[in-house]
Each structure stands twice: as C-alpha cells, then as structure tokens.
Design brief:
Elements lengths: L1 H26 L5 H20 L18 H21 L6 H38 L1
Helix pairs in contact: 1-2, 1-4, 3-4
Length: 136
C-alpha cells in the first residue's frame, strides 16, 4: 500500500507542479490568461485521465494504515471547482475585469501550492515509515 500510495502521490505532485509552472509563466507575463487557461485545461485533462487509469488504483488502501486528514484536500478541491466555475463565467463576459480574474487565478494557484505541501507531507510520512520498516 505504501509503495502504491507513494507512486500515486508522486504522479499527483507532477500534475500540481505543472499547473503551478503555468501560473508562474502567467505572473511573469510570458503567457496571457487565455493561454494559461488552455494549458491548464490540457494538463488537468491529461493528468486526470492518467490518474484515473493509474495502474495502482489500490493506493487508497494506505488509509488502512494512516489516518491522513483529507478534509483539507476535499475543501481545497471544492473551492477550486467553484473558482474555476467563476473563472469560466468571467471569461464568458466580454468586459473582463482583470482584478477579478487575477484574484481568482491567484487563489487557485495558492490552493494548488497548498495541495503540493499536503501531498509532500503524506509522502514524507510514508517514506520514513518504509525506510524504518526496511531497516528492521
């Protein structure tokens, strides 16, 4: 279970980091918001499908051994879903207010950074315990 969960968390971290890179490029003015959204959607779709087809779907068995608090992940995921819906509504409006757009994009980015930290923490716990187990 630890091996499978570690692999899943690493794949998930790759997705989150690719999204964060897109936000960084946007902040640096290297891409516009439309390209950010297009790249973001492509990466999310690609990795969502990849994670759905993840060969070790049994990663959730890790919860038999660890009591990870997934409430924050659920809260962040739900919040991002609402923010993305707001983003689509704003982009559908001809008169885009850049402040609203920037605020929403910044909050989504911040949420993804938080998710990265949560998954890294889970991964660290699992790896430490695996290392201790192997040493015995």
């Amino acid at each position: 279970s630890a091996k499978k969960a570690s692999e899943f968390y690493l794949e998930n971290l790759i997705l989150l980091n690719l999204i964060i890179i897109q936000f960084k490029l946007y902040k640096e003015g290297k891409i516009e918001h439309k390209l950010l959204i297009e790249n973001f959607e492509k990466e999310v779709n690609f990795y969502s499908n990849k994670l759905k087809l993840f060969p070790h779907f049994e990663h959730h068995h890790i919860n038999l051994f660890y009591n990870f608090n997934n409430e924050n992940i659920l809260k962040i995921t739900n919040e991002n879903q609402e923010l993305i819906q707001n983003l689509h509504e704003i982009l559908g409006n001809v008169n885009i207010e850049s402040e609203n757009l920037s605020d929403i994009l910044e909050k989504i980015n911040s949420n993804y950074i938080t998710l990265v930290e949560i998954y890294k923490e889970y991964l660290d716990v699992i790896r430490k315990d695996l290392k201790d187990y192997i040493r015995k």
